[in-house]
Amino acid sequence: MRPEEDDSGGTPGPGWSGSPEEDGEWARLASVVAEEAYEAPLEELPARLCATAVRLLPVCGASVLLRGDGLPVRLGASDGTAARVADVQGTLGEGPGLDAAAAGAPVFACDLARGADLGRWPVFAEQATGAGVRAVYSLPLGEGAACVGSLDLYRDTPGEPTGRDLRTGGLVAGVVTVALMALPDEEWTVFGGGDSRLGRMTSEHEQIHQATGMIMAQLDLGAGDALARLRGYAFAHGRTAGAAAREVIAHRKRFDDE
Q1: Domain segments of the chain: what residues?
Q2: CA–CA gap between residue 253 and residue 15 (Å, rounded)
Q3: Exposure of 214 by Cβ count < 10 A (0-12 exposed, 13-18 middle, 19+ buried)?
Q4: Between 207 and which of 25, 84, 107, 245 could a Cys-Cys bridge form, CB atoms 3.0 to 4.6 Å apart?
Q5: Taking Cα atoms as reference points, which of 64, 60, 53 lies closest to residue 177?
Q6: How far is 63 from 58, CA to CA, in rounded Å?
């Protein structure tokens, strides 16, 4: 579901008119997030802010997904379960985080075990609930066409986020967005190769591109169809897309001998 416009949601901005108590709470939360982000190396910032979100919110995990060319990249996660669920989205090519990043707007999956959310992302929902996740709140990193990814917050119980949840999550997402958008152009060479800091963080993305190219050559397919074959193989064998790509690159898996 998409959040409805109301006075309780969103991130405080120029029009924010909360009570003094709410303003004080907001300042405290902003201080906590800023302290975690202060002088943190880029490589550590997403994971540290994910852990901060878990401390500040009634969620059991958090992850940051960066939009990529055909495949999102997990930049950080609060724990192994959050990392696994984020990787499921990337492997399947479906999930609330991908939809939030594509739309540049929040997307909420309030109960993955039944109803509309189960029907919207059936395979992702099955995998996520199997990992103990019942709800996902996905907040965009940026707006519209300028969105660079999503902050995904995971709950082990169903339910909708409160206005306070949205404000706190929006604050964390905002810090991640500012950090990523402030990178110089050369740091984004991950999308065309290169060895930037961001590129080293997301080397798996390059491996997936390389494996996709090998599958294209083996089967005479376009890039989209080759990536779909890689994703299908990964899912069928319980692997991430990155792990499957490494098999292809190491010549342990070929698609033209099936």
Answers
A1: 20-184, 202-249
A2: 56
A3: buried
A4: 245
A5: 64
A6: 15
| Residue 117: partners with Cβ closer than 8 Å, 6 or more residues away | 1, 109, 110, 111, 125
Mean pLDDT, the chain, rounded, equals: 79
229 phi/psi in degrees, rounded to 5: -65, -40
Which burial class, exposed, middle or buried, applies to 82 when counting CB atoms under 10 A from its CB (0-12, 13-18, 19+)?
Answer: buried
Tens digit of each residue's pLDDT (9 = 90 or more) over 115-132: 999 999 999 999 999 999
The residues near 52 (Cβ < 8 Å, ≥ 6 apart) are: 32, 33, 36, 172
pLDDT at 196: 47
Residue 4, helix vs strand vs coil: coil
Counting runs of H as helices and runs of E as strands, what totals does the chain give? 11, 5
H or E stretch covering 153: strand 149-155
The topology under which CATH files domain 20-184 is Beta-Lactamase (3.30.450)
- Identify the DSSP state of 57: S
* SS3 state at 74: strand
**Burial annotation 89-126 (CB, 10 A radius, 16+ → b, else e):** bbbbbbbbbbbbbebbbbbbbbbbeeeebbebbeebbe
Within 10 Å of residue 128's Cβ, how many Cβ atoms?
Answer: 26
SS3 of residue 8 by DSSP: coil
- The token pair at 240 is 């991430």
